[in-house]
Amino acid sequence: MARIIVNVMPKPEILDPQGKAIAGAFTRLGEDRFTGVRQGKRFELLVDGQATEEDLAAARELATSTLSNPIIEDVVDVQVQE
Question: Which of 2, 6, 13, 16 could form a disulfide with 47 if both were Cys (CB 3.0 to 4.6 A apart)?
């Protein structure tokens, strides 16, 4: 069984309140080495057998049409994880 991983992140110009909340929690915990946090989404699409180029193409299409909002998010990665 193959796994196709799709990673989606907010566009850089979009505010990320969840990332800001996480960064604030880090500060309250005494962790100050990170200068910022952005929270995204990860999807795992399972395929029976080996993932084909057609499977990857379908995953990319779904990533841009369904799994992300192209107005505020970028699909940053679509890859096979064996």
Answer: 2
Q: Which residues are within 8 A (CB) of 10 and not within 5 positions of it... i.e. 6 or more apart?
A: 16, 19, 38, 39, 40, 72, 73, 74
CA distances from 15 to 30, 37, 38, 67 (A): 24, 11, 9, 19
How far, in whole angstroms, is CA 78 from its chain's centroid?
9
What are the tokens at 53? 């180029």
| Cα gap 64→54, rounded to integer Å | 16
Per-residue pLDDT of the chain (82 residues; tens, 9 = 90+): 999 999 999 999 999 999 999 999 999 999 999 999 999 999 999 999 999 999 999 999 999 999 999 999 999 999 999 7
